[in-house]
């Protein structure tokens, strides 16, 4: 199955968090399955906050990219166009850190679209480690505005 | 002037976002000046979202570390203890992306403590590029819990 991010056109495929064309980045890959988006990611040992735990900025970053992917897929399905043909950016992101996220295990992200309306999508994301939720987020995503045309 | 993060003890100085002891990370440095925290950071060319603009995950990351630094300094001042002797972690973070953040210029972060009470601090952060606000955030920070003792 192709990842949502791998279906983005080349000119918007350089995101540090999820672009397949950014060799420095995380290259997060989110998969659309039965109306939700799923991603897995194992942080590097240096992605630490307090030693032994994952840096909160990485958690927010993964959630951000997974949310835009969730929106891109949900909106494409709603519009009846191929996944990857619509690109979303984040307007607002709220992350609640529920528990310290252990470093050294694979993280799972689950993205659920809760509102898909016109140019806007609201998505809820849960990030878990070993089956335990560590962060929960709500993101408001909007279609990429013309002011963000790739430069 | 010493950065807030450079005053943290060694065992909590490895944060990917702001730890002086993490050679892979961003090493954000926040300075406490007249009741607010100020930081400056120039993203790398590969910290891109859509080409030409800064990746939202990096923006959230910088805000996260600047907020914990703001809380650490504000709480230390309130308690009459040296800055660096208290360490905070993020309980909740809301980032509103006001405008696309241009890549290639220095970013400025301003952190204002709006509530300092016991083990909790609320901080507001504004991230600007060239004097224009690009993101505004509200963070709830709490003293590092014992469950996060460095491992």
What does this structure look like?
The structure is a homodimer of 151-residue chains. Chain A is built from 1 helix and 6 strands; from the N terminus they run ββαββββ. In chain A, strands 1-2-4-5-6-3 form a 6-stranded antiparallel β-sheet, covered by helices on one side. Chain A has a single domain (5-148), classed as Hotdog Thioesterase (Thiol Ester Dehydrase, Chain A), CATH 3.10.129.10. Helix content of chain A is 16%, strand content 35%. Chain A is globular and about 45 Å long. Chain A is of the alpha+beta class and 151 residues long. The mean pLDDT of chain A is 95.
Gist of the model:
Chain A contains 1 helix and 6 strands; from the N terminus they run E-E-H-E-E-E-E. Chain A is 16% helix and 35% strand.
From the structure above, extract its key features.
Thiol Ester Dehydrase, Chain A, 6 strands, 151 residues, 35% strand, homodimer, 6-stranded antiparallel beta sheet, 16% helix, alpha+beta
SSE topology:
2 copies of one chain form a homodimer.
Chain A lengths: L29 E4 L2 E6 L14 H24 L8 E10 L9 E11 L2 E10 L2 E12 L8
* Biggest β-sheet strands, sense, barrel of chain A: 6 strands, antiparallel
- Could you tell me the strand content of chain A as a percent range? 35-45%
The Rg value of chain A, from CA coordinates, equals 15 Å
Q: Helix count of chain A?
A: 1
Task: Fill in the CATH topology of chain A.
Answer: Thiol Ester Dehydrase, Chain A
